[in-house]
Amino acid sequence: MDKAERVKYWLDIAEYDLETANSLLSTGRYLYVMVMCQQALEKLCKALFVDVFGEEPPRTHNLNYILAKVHDGRPEIDPKDKNIAAFLADLSAYYLEGRYPSYKEKLSTLVGCAKAKTTYSKTEEVFAWLKSLLMSIKQ
């Protein structure tokens, strides 16, 4: 695959995960809305990494780490400018903690409909911003 195809690959699965988050929201599976929102943004961050560097993205789930690397290659892409670093860190925690049964039960009590809707809405906003920064594919 060339660079544009790899970027498109990551973008396609990111969009699929965002659609999945929306489906989960409508069925009341709120913890998994958080997980899929994180996954959607992770894959889009990885698309952006490939777009900037033309190489495989880092194998991490840390959204801020991936975007910090992207910022190294394209300084104009700065999550601090958008005040999203705390949001991304929070989302990463839900993804990591939500995968373990002992934490999943506790987290499920902390994520209700309002939190899931707010998170999904913010994810859509961040997703649109990140997607607009992709240069290798026509939008």
Question: How would you explain this protein's 3D organization?
Answer:
This protein has 139 residues and is mainly alpha-helical. The protein has a single domain (3-132), classed as Up-down Bundle (Four Helix Bundle (Hemerythrin (Met), subunit A)). It contains 6 helices and no strands. The chain has helices spanning 3-27, 30-53, 63-73, 85-98, 101-110, 113-132. It starts with a helix and ends in a 7-residue tail after the last helix.
Short overview:
By secondary structure, the chain is mainly α. The chain has a single domain, classed as Up-down Bundle (Four Helix Bundle (Hemerythrin (Met), subunit A)), CATH 1.20.120.
As residue ranges, the low-confidence spans are none
Total number of domains: 1
Termini gap: 19 Å
- CATH first level: Mainly Alpha
Largest sheet: none
Order of helices and strands: HHHHHH
CATH third-level topology: Four Helix Bundle (Hemerythrin (Met), subunit A)
Helical fraction: over 70%
Mean pLDDT across every amino acid position: 91
Count of distinct strands: 0
What's the tally of helices? 6
Which word captures the global form? globular
Portion in strands: under 5%
Would you identify the CATH architecture?
Answer: Up-down Bundle
Alpha-beta classification: mainly alpha
Write down the Rg: 15 Å
The CATH homologous superfamily is named Nucleotidyltransferases  domain 2
